[in-house]
Amino acid sequence: MSKKEDSRGKKGSHQTELYAEVPSTCLPIVYSPEYNITFMGLEKLHPFDAGKWGKVIHFLKEEQFITDEVIVLAREASEADLLVVHTARYLNRLKNAILEGSREWSLVVATITEIPPLLFLPNFLVQRKVLKPLRTQTGGTIMAGKLAMDRGWAINVGGGFHHCSSDKGGGFCAYADITLAIKFLFERVEGVARATIIDLDAHQGNGHERDFLEDRRVYIMDVYNRHIYPGDGYAKRAIKRKVELDWGTEDMEYLQKVELHSEGALNEVRPDIIIYNAGTDILDGDPLGGLAISPQGIIKRDEIIFRAARRRGIPILMVTSGGYQKKTARIIADSILNLHRQGLIGEEAVEGAGPSHVPLMMSKSVSSGAMFSAI
């Protein structure tokens, strides 16, 4: 373990497998085949592409940017890991079915995922086929948080469940991975005292906003369509830099606002880490996002955020969050490839980077549809 952190944390926290050492030969890109939800076709009843994460990895391999050997394999978050943020009552509600006669009804999971037929399936299958993938993505985000501090950047190809808070899920978000990643860093990594969340998913990130409402260590910038899910006025009080968009916002206006406000946010408070929620549901034609950003606009948006982080020497963790069209996986892959071409991510961030220091390139000195809500 690094001198900066250990598996039990600075305050004698629980033992975790998520902060295990990662070989220096790996890129800080976290993924597991367990991310993908395939369940007798029922996943198709929600507009979310429940296999998009594997498609992103396929495209990155096709372009010869990564191989299986350099990917960091995500581990499933344990119950003890989840209890760092979640209440035992909430986790029990996810775990336990409602008994009626001889049937077990997975009401809570069916409500969170917005796939009503899950009600009629055996609870053990729902746990294995739906919640386990989401727990693995959550573990991936926590792992990527430590990797970002070690290497200067990290990407979890999944995660970004920004509608889930400590005691409530929704919008296909069952676990509060963003909150968990930040809390793990605060508890376990020396020198991490402030975090900035830049949430650019089309939907308001009400989950992490509720979790950090009274926490001055966390600065939240949120850019979202003001007219869609969740419209959580209470959670909005946590947003330090709020940018509300109208239906059909296009590239020019959007990118100007993203650049202006991300620069403003990072100039206002210098964090020890940026958590970047890079939802692709801003894409023109997305059934839930209601915005009109082009694929090129999404790629440019991600470049703006990574460039702002690198210019200031701030480690950055990216999660992929929402995106409800089949072509979003290709766009995510293209964006990652562009970040590499621009020199903002890649092997140069790994070479010479041990877990006890930040690499030179990142030196610390220097969402509603008619029927569905969404990540």
UniProtKB/TrEMBL annotation:
CDD domains associated with the record: HDAC_classIV
E.C. numbers: 3.5.1.98
Classification via SUPFAM superfamilies: Arginase/deacetylase (SSF52768)
Short name of one Pfam family: Hist_deacetyl
Broad class of where this protein is predominantly found: nucleus
Lineage: superkingdom: Eukaryota
Self-association and partners: Interacts with HDAC6.
Protein name per Swiss-Prot or TrEMBL: Histone deacetylase 11
Gene that produces this protein: LOC109085249
